[in-house]
């Protein structure tokens, strides 16, 4: 039920274990339950697989979440610029992985110490508000990273977002509310000195966060420690090799995968399926078994998803995108391979073998899903995330324009009503004045006529 690396940390890192005990105020039974919950969550979420190369480069380049200096107690800071965030449900899972990436980075940096979070709301509006992400962030520190949060400093929250605080506060236990502090350019320096704050927050630090480039991502991918593979006879795992080129990837020194990193789907037509081919080639001297999995089984079909490839042979895997679905940025295919000794194994026996083989003896590689474009993208072409953000901005701009139009119409109606009221009062005054001026002759004539 747990990842081996997490169990190893529990066995050897007393400081890490102490955090759970402190969070539960010395109650060992509750602390043990919290450890169990945290370790199960880490495995189900796949925390150990969250790294820089597994995340979209656009998330780093958006500069909405990044590390920034230290607070007055020496705790590293995660900076969140709320104005750069737009809620996009299709990117929600990847965004959560991105947040976890930085929390894990701070965990590694502090060796089990604490960190601070600054949420700068300067320039933010309703379009930037994401209650789901805020709730996720709070849950992280409450349940899965206990006693690791020093403060969440909320900088210059605009009045339009203040009602959201009442909703957020309802999610928090009393001891957690004290960790959230509302600050401005003056009061924030009680927690972070001016030389560790950017100029826009009243500080003197002029340096800017520099996100990784495509070259950085490529180098990081090549530096990723390869996994180990082994045959079923229990031979000690041997170091695998991961070779990535423009056309193919070789994993474990046994399986060549073409394409190398992405599956490119055509733009879908109505009521028609859309498919691509993955070519797998055995480049080892022994038979290998392969297995193909996806994180979105509702949108795709894989044929065949399991099989055996003899030395020197190849096989084509058909990946079908079903009608009515589009490839999402979060869609991935996991290609796994391991050496075997018997190339005649039946499918049931092969399934049994896969279930009993330790994970560290399996080589794997992920392919991301993207949609082909009509033309080759230029260097300055916008990413899908940037386009989505611009679309959201246009929607917000349209709403604001409609609100302004309604305000103008309302003002016009109020003006006309005011003018009508003024004219009515004026006419009444003129009428009464006329009656008053002619009262001496008017009323006697009426009385004489009828009485």
TrEMBL record:
Domain CRAL-TRIO: 53-209
InterPro entries listed in its UniProt record: CRAL-TRIO_dom, CRAL-TRIO_dom_sf, CRAL/TRIO_N_dom_sf, ER-organelle_contact, Ig-like_fold, MSP_dom, PapD-like_sf
Start and end residues of each MSP domain: 254-372
UniProt-listed PROSITE patterns: CRAL_TRIO, MSP
CDD domains assigned: SEC14 (cd00170)
Alphabetized UniProt keyword annotations: Coiled coil
UniProt xrefs under Gene3D superfamilies: CRAL-TRIO lipid binding domain, Immunoglobulins
Cross-referenced SMART domains: SEC14
Family matches, as Pfam families: CRAL_TRIO (PF00650), Motile_Sperm (PF00635)
Coiled coil regions in record: 382-409
Region (Disordered): 202-236
Bias (Basic and acidic residues): 215-230
One GO CC annotation: endoplasmic reticulum-endosome membrane contact site
Protein name: Motile sperm domain-containing protein 2
